[in-house]
Design brief:
- The protein is α+β, with helices and mostly antiparallel strands.
- It has 2 domains: 95 residues, Single Sheet (Outer membrane efflux proteins (OEP)); 340 residues, Outer membrane efflux proteins (OEP).
């Protein structure tokens, strides 16, 4: 009996060694990037002049890119409280647990068991011809249904679970980058709307003064009723804008509350856009290959592709025999007091092999599904690269022209302000009609609003560039 037990142990050890063989998954080859090796060029794109060596955007922490102290505190608050990021972190923990579950199938599961059986046998079934009570007790250690992974099926499933776990980590990084950028973009939008609201209030004050002056002139018979009503329209237009921008400021604060995930401290809110023009650093785009290798969403897509590739190995292994082991060693007795006495030792070793012969094509269909899933993952990986390339190219196109747009809008605003000043002076001297003053006021107000919009676009473009270039991905 001891000799048989040793043979069983040796056999199990040999099977465990054999189960460490390679999987039947196809060798993974990274698909070629279906995009150009350089960013687009043309009138919309700013040529990259020779610069001092700058580290890749992926290596620039958000604390270094966003230099405004208020904004950095707000981003920190969002990283602590945002629910989307919290879900992403929990998904990592879940995937890690799933990987540990799949990995544990590579090892035998040993269970300790203790059982008692009490049975009464009728006299018709008893060997003595009398009713008989049977008591059985046993304790032991056993391995139940351990699969010897001779063809790598379990290892392929473990590899797939590992890649999915790694993909969830990349997903968390992607969510974090998006969250940081969303906080910054919403914060800047709030700053712009606050400045627009302030401009509308200042315009209302100015227009009310102008209206009072026109009213006095009308009452003195110097101005016409038409001038008075035209002055009234500018006052009412400013009141409309105040109401509209008051609503937008409140909605911006609500959006910022949601993305941060908690109440906003008043001292972290931006006063106006003009005071945040230096809140961000400038960026150099680098080469497409650097960006594509750093973006977490692309690494996530590649991880899912590797997982689909590993799953093919499991589908292939299903065509081959599966060997499972059941074993148990312990003690048994018909009397509890004799459970550990000499002669009560028992053992069981029951290997089982199953070979698929006829399955109505299910294994072949499962393999086809696994291969198609891999092809789908390849297409999704390539699409992720193309999408990333397009996002960066769009941001670079705006970056190449936005400075000129801001400069031109600033010049237009300055010229319009001078025109308004001259029109007002000519009207007061009776040279021009009030209609010219009204037109110059509207032009100045529109130019000032457009200047705020242009400045916001420039800052938002920097935020977008930081995001699409994978900013902070290697933190």
């Amino acid at each position: 009996m001891n000799r048989m037990l040793k043979i069983s142990c040796y056999s199990m050890g040999a099977f465990l060694c054999l189960s460490g063989c390679a999987t039947m998954a196809p060798s993974y080859t990274q698909p070629a990037a279906p995009v150009a090796n350089a960013w687009p060029s043309g009138p919309a794109y700013k040529p990259e002049a020779a610069k001092t060596e700058q580290k890749p955007v992926a290596d620039i922490p958000w604390q270094e890119f966003f230099v405004d102290g208020q904004l950095r505190k707000l981003i920190t608050l969002a990283l602590e409280n945002n629910r989307d990021l919290r879900v992403a972190v929990l998904n990592i923990e879940r995937s890690q647990a799933q990987y540990q579950i799949q990995r544990s199938d590579l090892f035998p599961k040993v269970d300790a068991t203790a059982a008692g059986t009490f049975q009464r046998i009728a006299e018709n079934f008893s060997s003595t011809g009398l009713p008989e009570n049977i008591h059985q007790y046993n304790v032991g250690l056993g391995v139940s249904s351990y699969e010897l992974d001779l063809f790598g099926r379990v290892r392929s499933l473990k590899g797939q679970a590992l890649e999915q776990y790694l993909a969830t980590e990349q997903a968390r990084r992607s969510v974090q980058i998006s969250l940081v950028s969303q906080v910054a973009a919403t914060w800047l939008a709030l700053a712009a709307d606050r400045e627009r609201l302030q401009l509308a209030k200042e315009t209302l004050t100015s227009q009310q003064s102008s209206y009072q002056l026109t009213k006095s002139r009308f009452e003195a018979g110097v101005s016409s009723a038409r001038d008075l009503y035209q002055a009234q329209t500018t006052v009412d237009a400013a009141r409309v804008d105040i109401a509209r921008y008051t609503t937008l400021v409140a909605q911006d604060e609500n959006a910022l509350n949601l993305v941060v995930g908690s109440a906003l401290p008043a001292d972290l809110l931006p006063p106006s856009l003009s005071e945040t023009l230096t809140a961000l650093k400038d960026l150099a785009p680098g080469l497409p290959s650097d960006v594509l290798l750093s973006r977490p969403d692309i690494l996530q897509a590649e991880g899912l592709l590797k997982g689909a590739n590993a799953n093919i190995g499991a589908a292939r292994a299903a065509f081959f025999p599966r060997i499972t082991l059941v074993s148990n060693v312990g003690f048994g007795s018909d009397d509890l007091s004799g459970l550990f006495k000499p002669g009560s030792f028992v053992w069981k070793f029951a290997p089982q092999i199953s070979l698929p012969i006829f399955d109505a094509g299910s294994n072949k269909a499962n393999l086809k599904v696994a291969e198609v899933d891999r092809d789908i993952a390849v297409a999704q990986y390539e699409k992720a690269i193309q999408t990333a390339f397009r996002e960066v190219a769009d941001a670079l196109a705006q970056r190449g022209t936005i400075d000129e747009q801001v400069a031109a809008q600033q010049s237009l605003t300055d010229a319009t302000a001078e025109s308004h000043h001259l029109s007002q002076a000519r009207y007061e001297k009776g040279v021009d009609s009030y209609l010219n003053v009204l037109d110059s006021q509207r032009s100045l107000y529109g130019a000032q609003q457009n200047l705020i919009t242009a400045r916001l676009s420039r800052l938002a473009n920097l935020v977008t560039l930081y995001k699409v270039l994978g900013g902070g991905a290697k933190e």
